[in-house]
Amino acid sequence: MKHVDAVIIGGGPAGLAAAIELRKKGIDDILILEREKKPSGILRQCIHDGFGLTRFGETLSGPKYAARFVREAEALQIPCLTDTTVLEVTPDRHVYASSSEHGMMEFEAGAIVLAMGCRERTRGAIRIPGTRPAGVYTAGVAQAYINLKNKMVGRKVVILGSGDIGMIMARRMTLEGAEVLGVFEVQPYASGLPRNVEQCLNDYNIPLSLSHTVTDIRGTDRLESVVISAFDEHMQPIPGTEKEYECDTLILSVGLIPENELTWMAGAEKDPGTSGAAVDENYQTTVPGIFAAGNVLHVHDLLDFVSLEAEALADGAARFLKEGSLPACNLAVRGNELVSGLTPSRISGEDDVTVSFRVRRPLRNCTIELVQGDTVVKRRRMPKALPAEMIQIKLKASDLSQTDDLEVKVTC
Amino acid sequence: MVPVPLTSPFSLRTILTNGIDRKVTAIERYVANNCYLVHTPAGAFRTKWVINCAGAFASDISEMHGYPNYPVRDFKGEYFVLDKKAGAFLKTPVYHAPNDRGGFSTHATPTVDGNVLVGPDSYITEEWEDYKCTKDHLDGLIRDGSKMFEQMRREFSIRNFAGIRWKRVDEEGNVLDSKLESDQQHNPNTVNLVGIESPGVTCALPLARRAVARLVAVEKPEVNEKFDPVRPALKRFYDMTREEQAEAIAADPEYGEIVCRCETVTRAEIRRAIHNPLGVHTVTGIKNRTRATMGRCQGGYCETRITEMIEQELGIKPTEVRYSHADSYMFTGPVRSGNAQDETTEGSVNA
Ligand SMILES: Cc1cc2nc3c(=O)[nH]c(=O)nc-3n(C[C@H](O)[C@H](O)[C@H](O)COP(=O)(O)OP(=O)(O)OC[C@H]3O[C@@H](n4cnc5c(N)ncnc54)[C@H](O)[C@@H]3O)c2cc1C
Ligand SMILES: Cc1cc2nc3c(=O)[nH]c(=O)nc-3n(C[C@H](O)[C@H](O)[C@H](O)COP(=O)(O)OP(=O)(O)OC[C@H]3O[C@@H](n4cnc5c(N)ncnc54)[C@H](O)[C@@H]3O)c2cc1C
Fold first, then answer.
1. Interatomic CA distance for residues A73 and A81, integer angstroms
2. What integer best gives the mean pLDDT of chain A?
3. What confidence tens digit (pLDDT) does each residue in A68-117 have?
4. What is the pLDDT of residue A305?
5. Rg (CA), chain A
6. What is the percentage of chain B residues whose pLDDT exceeds 90?
7. Which domains does chain A have, with CATH numbers?
8. Fewer CB within a 10 Å sphere, N or C end of chain B?
């Protein structure tokens, strides 16, 4: 068993940014554990561009954005064990990891940064009826096959779900000569960013059908067709609207789920709103010394926010390592019925804090108020708010009270 | 409490999901040589005895080696597979009381692996090999299953599947008993099992003993006293202690590479499954043997790795990789000509 001051689980953008920032804050003994052959996380396969506008003031491809962090980590000589999968994290901060090269390893960590990213929701999770042929892929898996493995997954494609990755794959497959019959979304609005609806679908004449979903999958060996039905406002299929689309591929872009198996093993409590860990303003989970940021905490739409969040985490983690503990955060953060995915769940009122959340449905001319007791700490009006776009609001310590819980109220 | 023996049905069903290269298509009898020739796409096999235990196809095989093509009906049942997280809430199978005819339908069963199965329901299907799931029946399982298992939550559902019980029936469709027969006079050296429906897994050993007894009665073979029927199961990496895991990796470094993260299946275990004498060569075959892709991410992490292993270990092209059945090919070709690049280059690719 080896002691390490800061063990970082996951070498994606969150893990890399946290590691670099920790080193800059004077923490020398850092180790990144990454199960892939190279660090970079999911960005390896996101070869489209559009990353980095907030952070670097220019738009980069995913691999290029990641390369900036990888190079900086290398320059700072931060060790990263790749091909290494973490199997277990204990509440007393022991980390078990396995690799072919180094065998079974155990580390005793001063602090742990959870940066495992997220996984995709699958067909089974949304219970699409039908047969179980080849040719049904989640968007991220199709993206990995096409962009990393040079394997084309199909020629005639239906896309279910208007998540960003699904729309990006609609364009990607069109560019590679596949015929994309359409993108179908069960909600009455697109779940991904408006930018992607424009640039990935409209620019390529790929139809987007809202309030529609796949109600049957057909074919025994390879997918032969899917049946699409229109849905009413109660999310029930409207009889008589079934239409069969012949295709060999169905791509699912139906949501991302934070990858928190290790988090729960460590005994951290869940935030029911984000389905990630409940964290305080320092990104510390309910287990002292265990921190979480990036997609493992809550799913981000803007990569730049992932990096910034991980850098903010490093502040708290470095302080924890130097001082042995962090001040208690006793004030709860709550949202009203229009608010989802609210982080953090606890604050102290003594420090600056960034509050992140989404609205539950598309809204026009809404008002956001952050309230403590009878005091409105911050008010913002928004002409338009979409569930696809995470909203972040920064609060200054000087504006906060140390006695009242914080409420996020969205009204429309 | 009566202990209920449980086993995993998945590990028992690999052949069909491994392609059909050994599917029996015809059986010829050679009276002079006192043998049968069993034909498959992978060639013919000469044998003295034929034991028909072909499940779904038992009636066809029955006819091939001289017995009637017994009519059967397909009683289908659909299932939910729930996350191992749900398994924490269920320690014993939950059934409702049998109905007037002694039957029971949807129940909740914890599996030996820690998942929960909810199902099966039971209804007749007229379509041949109809394994699809349907909205009505999945809704029914949620309704009835929630009564058996209140933790049947949406977030726990991993996968749905269906199975078919082939029951022997008479002309009116009344269900008849299963058959275990051997007609030494007309079809020498054969045993015929048809309509082995539920609980055929539970009864598999006694049925097998009876079938073997027919052969023994004719052949009167010498008993091999040295035969050891117990083959110790290989311990899964997942079930090992940390010390055992460390030893396993030291002995075979491929135990250190976790291919399937949800079920903690290593490269060494998948390689073994591929090269085993009853080797599996498809994604589903590997899944049924090793549990890789069977967890909550359903292959989101490991499927790209498994397809690559199938190519490498078997020396086949990506376009030859199959998901499960005969023509279930997964890839239509390379995206771009030239060699596959494992990692994208750093430059901005305009895509
Ligand atoms: C398929 C896909 C496509 C996306 N496309 C876009 C996009 O176009 N634009 C955008 O802004 N955002 C996109 N996102 C969101 C994007 O993931 C995030 O913005 C960002 O990559 C999250 O960074 P992260 O470091 O939190 O997670 P990740 O990038 O996922 O990195 C997590 C890392 O942790 C490693 N890891 C996980 N578990 C373990 C373990 N047990 N042991 C060792 N290592 C482990 C993983 O291998 C991975 O390298 C996409 C997400 C996905 C899943
Ligand atoms: C929904 C459902 C629930 C059930 N629940 C239970 C339960 O709780 N308990 C229980 O004990 N039983 C249960 N059963 C029944 C049990 O699964 C069967 O009775 C049992 O699997 C029958 O075993 P078998 O070996 O006769 O046939 P099978 O398991 O069907 O095996 C036949 C094998 O022969 C192969 N084969 C077929 N045709 C050919 C051919 N032409 N050439 C080469 N190979 C061929 C097939 O690929 C297959 O591997 C259930 C069944 C279903 C469908």
1. 13
2. 96
3. 999 999 999 999 999 999 999 999 999 999 999 999 999 999 999 999 99
4. 94
5. 22
6. 77
7. 1-120+256-326 (3.50.50.60), 122-254 (3.50.50.60), 329-412 (2.60.40)
8. N
Tell me the per-residue pLDDT of B231-264, one tens digit each, with 9 for 90 and over: 888 899 999 999 999 999 999 999 999 999 999 9
- Ligand 2 mutation pick, B57, B74, B193, B289, max ligand atoms within 8 A of CB: B57
How far does residue A262's CA lie from ligand 1's centre (Å)? 16
Domain B72-168 -> CATH class: alpha beta
What ipTM did this prediction achieve?
Answer: 0.94
pTM assigned to the model: 0.92
Residue A316 Cα to ligand 1 midpoint, Å, equals: 22
Chains A, B: CB contacts within 8 A come to 181
DSSP E strand boundaries for A310-352? 331-335, 339-343, 346-347
Question: What per-residue confidence (pLDDT) applies to B4?
Answer: 34
In this predicted structure, what is the pLDDT of residue B278?
A: 84
CB within 8 Å: A48 and B157: no
Quick one: three-class SS letters along A33-86? ECCCCCCCHHHHHCCCEEECHHHHCCCEEHHHHHHHHHHHHHHCCCCEECCCEE
Atom of ligand 1 nearest to the CA of A139: 1
Contacts of A261 in chain B (CB under 8 A): 262
Contact (CB<8Å) B328/A221: yes
A10 in contact with ligand 1, CB cutoff 6 A: yes
Task: For ligand 2, atom 34, name the residue with the nearest CA.
Answer: B54
Q: B29: helix, coil or strand? A: strand
- What residues does each domain of chain B span? 1-48, 72-168, 237-346
Burial of A235 (0-12, 13-18, 19+ CB in 10 A): exposed
Determine the Cα–Cα distance for residues B207 and B193; give it in Å rounded to an integer. 9
Q: Are A225 and A238 in contact (CB under 8 A)?
A: no
